[in-house]
Write a structure and sequence with these properties.
single chain, 5-stranded mixed β-sheet, 41% helix
Amino acid sequence: RNYAMRDDIFMDLTGFLSDSVMDKQYGNIIDASRIGDKLYFLPVTLEIEGLVTNRDLLEDGAVGITFEDYDAMVRGSLDGFSPYDYPDSEYYNKSSFVLSCIDTKAAIEGDSVDFGDDQFYAAIEYAKDNFQYDDPDSTPLNFISDFNNRFRGESIYARCSGYLDFICACYSNDNDYSLIGTPSVDARGPRFRALETISVASSTNTEEGCREFLNFLFDGAGYDTEDPLLSSIITNREIMESVIPSITAAHNELLQGKIDSDNAMVDTDFYHDKIATESMQQSFLDCLATISTYYYEDPRIVSFVTEETAAYYAGDVTAEEVGEFLNDRVDKYIHEM
């Protein structure tokens, strides 16, 4: 929680990891975890959020997409079907779309709360014009489970807590896919949140022991790089580069065995039943090197965003007023902690 990110609660972990251990990490992920210039926690396992998209639909080397290019892709290459709209998806609504685009961490970590940037205004404007339902609770269950009228295309909004999730999100193994950022004003890359973190209490009297443990953990001594069950995303680049091929081989062996034996449906998640390719491996590893934004979803702040934007969608207030109301509510909430 943001209110705990203070010097009197947690130590700043900047410099805790030795140079040799830091060299093994995705430095972009570590840097993105800072609150201001302080590193109050280190991410242990991650979830990445973005659009898994056929590269043929993107500019060469693209890591993100602007709102304008996203809209053109939806209306053109995707035949009008949104990447948020697919069978069983609960994300095809205004609230989920906006929350996937705005940077809550950046809005609240400065001297004053400020949601009213170009990204916020572009997100709520696009949501108002292009999404029917306001939030997950207002989305009918029969719509969510509609497999006949909802189309799963070559770009899909996904949250990946492991490499297998990325395989699942790729439409097929016939094309090359990239995990890019959600729509933004500056085509920024995908973002992540920490599923597990580790911090050191400011009151500790065993700082050196904590330092040794963190170096042991992030150096990778506790991981078996040959274990295909290591499905989590971690910050150690060398381990991820080593384990992804093992996961690919285990996945493909299982799937091919089922295909060869009885041609039965694979007992995994929807769209999981595809042979993973070397292109998928490299694309996933490339993505880990491009994520630069850390996000988190405080339940109260999420509810504030949903409530305040609802009045804008109804035409009762302007976008600027939404930003002002939201800043005021979140500022009071933070200072009450």
